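Archive entry. Fields below.
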Amino acid sequence: DAKTTQPNSMESNEEEPVHLPCNHSTISGTDYIHWYRQLPSQGPEYVIHGLTSNVNNRMASLAIAEDRKSSTLILHRATLRDAAVYYCILRGGSEKLVFGKGTKLTVNP
Amino acid sequence: EAQVTQNPRYLITVTGKKLTVTCSQNMNHEYMSWYRQDPGLGLRQIYYSMNVEVTDKGDVPEGYKVSRKEKRNFPLILESPSPNQTSLYFCASSFIPPSTGGKYEQYFGPGTRLTVT
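PREDICTED_STRUCTURE:
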């Protein structure tokens, strides 16, 4: 599975937008970009995924660079409940999820 | 409500005493998987199953067994638990697309915290 690189931690203020970056320079043409998050003491939770085009859902937006070597998860208005570890994962041809260390997001009130 | 359930949520046991952690999903998913999560090591896959009676090893299968007799259930069996299996365990499930994999989201259970003394 291709590798992703994320910052170890980020901090945000409540009700402000948050942009979580992910680099994946070795992505292949069939790899989907998935984002999951893990709230404290809970199982991972699906956030969003995309292949080439930007994607929006009720939780977040995913902006994918034109060359697909990076992507950004956007939380439009962070809440305290969004404090979690966010994982950027590439998946292609396999159902297996390979979790890296992720980005720990702290949201300040 | 679509969900993955695990039981028990917490378990303290002693070395060598066989145990089973159950996992059940109500979404008719073909794919099911077990992960363990340890500090500094992240989430690692133990075993997975693509469908009934089809199981395969993940990255850290030693000391574990699984079975998939029914589509909805995927129990994790520790025949002779040891202290190095003290960990947080997660079960997950998803649909398998007819062609390219990686398309569908996985649903995770709430976790089972196992302590082996």
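CURATOR_NOTE: Chain A touches chain B through 23 residues (CB under 8 Å).
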